[in-house]
Amino acid sequence: MKHEACPPSRRSVLGFVAAAVLIAPVAAAFAEELAVTVHKDPNCGCCAGWVQHLRDAGFVVRVDETADLESIRSRLGVPADLTACHTAEVAGYVVEGHVPAAAIRRLLAERPNAKGVAVPGMPIGSPGMEGGRPAAYSVMLFGADGQKTFMRFVGDRAVG
């Protein structure tokens, strides 16, 4: 006995269309949250390593090669004591320096009332600065309420 497949009913087709309409904005918002714009000096190799770290972690990265990072940091409100070698923007937040992808994901999940996160300087072992013995460093949360430690890392491993 051969069974013929029944064509989908109008109700089931409308159900699929409604589901697609409801899911599409959520998927678009999720993709937008993972889109990162990185402003970096065209001659900086460690910045390219950090960009690759973000891509490997599932972020979609657009690179803006520029030698005028000071004006970008000024426009975005990065405190002078937190500056590093590149500045990024993601979902309304600023990401300064070699911030691990895990810290960015936590930032996006928790959505704190802050301007952004930063890893000042260029700690050995941080994403993009691999090589040598990894140093302990803090990811700082900054904004109108000042600065505070957001996460701690040794290399790319969270330790607190």
Structure description:
This protein has four helices and eight strands, in the order αβαβαββαββββ. The chain starts with 9 loop residues before the first helix and ends with a strand. The radius of gyration is 21 Å and the shape is globular. The chain has an eight-stranded mixed beta sheet, with helices on both faces. It has helices at residues 10-33, 45-56, 69-76, 101-110, and strands spanning 35-40, 60-65, 86-90, 93-97, 116-119, 136-143, 146-154, 157-158. It is α+β, with helices and mostly antiparallel strands and 160 residues long.
Helix and strand arrangement:
Blueprint: H1 10-33, E1 35-40, H2 45-56, E2 60-65, H3 69-76, E3 86-90, E4 93-97, H4 101-110, E5 116-119, E6 136-143, E7 146-154, E8 157-158
Parallel strand pairs: 1-2, 4-5
Antiparallel strand pairs: 1-3, 3-4, 5-6, 6-7, 7-8
Features of the shown structure:
160 residues, alpha+beta, 8-stranded mixed sheet, globular
How much helicity do the residues have?
A: 25-40%
Total number of beta strands? 8
Strand content: 25-35%
Structural class: alpha+beta
- Intertermini distance: 64 Å
The profile of the biggest β sheet is: 8 strands, mixed
Task: Tell me briefly what this model is.
The protein is an alpha+beta fold.
